[in-house]
Amino acid sequence: MKKKFMSVLLAGAMLFSLAAGCAKKADSKKIGVAMPTKDLQRWNQDGDNMKKKLEAAGFTVDLQYASNDIPTQQNQIENMINGGCKVLVIASIDGDSLGTVLATAKEKNIPVIAYDRLIMNTDAVAYYATFDNYKVGTIQGEYIRDQLKLDSTDGPYNIEVFTGDPGDNNARFFYNGAVDVLKPYIEAGKLHVVSGKYDFETAATASWSTENAQTRMEAIISGNYSDGTKLDAVLCSNDSTALGVTNALEAAGWTAENMPIITGQDCDIANVKNMLAGKQSMSVFKDTRTLADQVVEMVKALMEGKTAPTNDNKTYDNGVKVVPSYLCTPVFADANNYKDILITSGYYKESDLA
Ligand code: BGC
Question: pLDDT at position 28, please?
Fold first, then answer.
């Protein structure tokens, strides 16, 4: 009896140490992934992709969304640090608000990868993976230039400008990329910003919110276009702002027949549907699967003490250092090429867009 009791005890102890060993092993491969919000389709896709791909590579994942609330994101990152994460992958809400919490990460030798949005004014960031953000803006500006035939017609054409959240370092890149293309035409009088408001600060949209963009567009319409003044184009830095602009225009009586050219970014399902219905002209497609692949490579390299592949080591200065970056390539999608870009590539099913 005593012998039996002893052997049960021994087996129990063995099981326990095996389990503890497993837990230790799992913990030693834990990666924290901090995403800004579930409100926008893209971040859900980013989070899902990251989790799937990291798990497939043998890591465990602590994935958190912060409802676009800065203190929530700070707490989540603190918990990841205290919870034993070995690498942090962070898409920040506000690039400037993570310095303190990331100083703790640095003390504990936990490397940080800035995901899609650069984290500013800290030396704790090891790598940055994103899309070529300036190019996103260039693509939008060139689309408007080409659709309005600014090089071969006299115009003048009327345009309004909406960009993103000033706390997101990307917003300026998108804005500059587009405005660098369009400014010569504005200065030559071929393109006219009727509201007069197109400097970055006034064109910004807090939290990238659809509602904020809609409210600003409603005010622009009533102040400048309610007398029938023609609106030819609205430069929108992304799909959530484009949606707000489209809602305001529709509410004021615009239809697919007379919609201005409207740009976007992300190819969110609601916006692709609008594109197919003639209510948005284009959206810049950023394949979040490619971005996730790249970040997984960075995580692997950091976990193995190796150097990760980067392709840009000059553009992204966060105020403290130039962060070694990998820039993925954005492309534009519109009603003509969406099948190749979005369906054939397996990003969406045709039924998603019905
Ligand atoms: C991302 C865009 C996104 C925007 C709003 C930016 O940092 O690069 O893809 O539309 O944030 O979430």
Answer: 87
**Fold designation for 133-286:** Rossmann fold (3.40.50)
Q: Is the pLDDT of residue 24 over 60?
A: no
Query: Tokens in use for 52?
Result: 């799937």
Pair of tokens at residue 74: 């700070």
Q: Ligand 1 pocket: which of 92, 266, 267, 332 to mutate (most atoms <8 Å of CB)?
A: 266
Q: Do domains 25-125+287-328 and 133-286 have the same CATH topology?
A: yes
Laid out side by side, the sheet with 30-35 consists of 60-65, 30-35, 87-90, 112-115, 125-131, 325-328
Which candidate, 319, 348, 324, places its Cα nearest to that of 99?
319
Q: In this predicted structure, what is the pLDDT of residue 16?
A: 44
Q: Which atom of ligand 1 is nearest to the CA of 40?
A: 12
pLDDT at 34: 98
Q: Cβ distance 157 to 192 under 8 Å? A: yes
**Spelled out in words, what is the top-level CATH class assigned to the domain 25-125+287-328?**
alpha beta
- In a 13 Å sphere around the CA of 331, the CA atoms on its Cβ side amount to 11
Instruction: Provide the whole-model pTM.
Output: 0.91
Is the pLDDT assigned to residue 77 strictly greater than 70?
Answer: yes
Asked if pLDDT for residue 26 goes beyond 90, the answer is no
Angle at 48 between CA 44 and CA 53, to 5 degrees: 150
Tokens of 35: 């995403």
pLDDT of residue 333: 97
Residue 232 Cβ < 6 Å to ligand 1: no
* Contacts of residue 205, Cβ cutoff 8 Å, sequence gap at least 6: 162, 163, 164, 165, 212, 213, 216, 237, 241, 244
Which of 262, 257, 282 has its CA nearest to residue 272? 282
Average pLDDT, the chain: 93
Each domain of the chain, given as residue ranges in start order, spans: 25-125+287-328, 133-286
Ligand 1 in reach of 265 Cβ (< 6 A)? yes
pLDDT digits (tens, 9 = 90+) for 278-325: 999 999 999 999 999 999 999 999 999 999 999 999 999 999 999 999
Q: Which residues contact 251 (CB under 8 A, 6 or more apart)?
A: 218
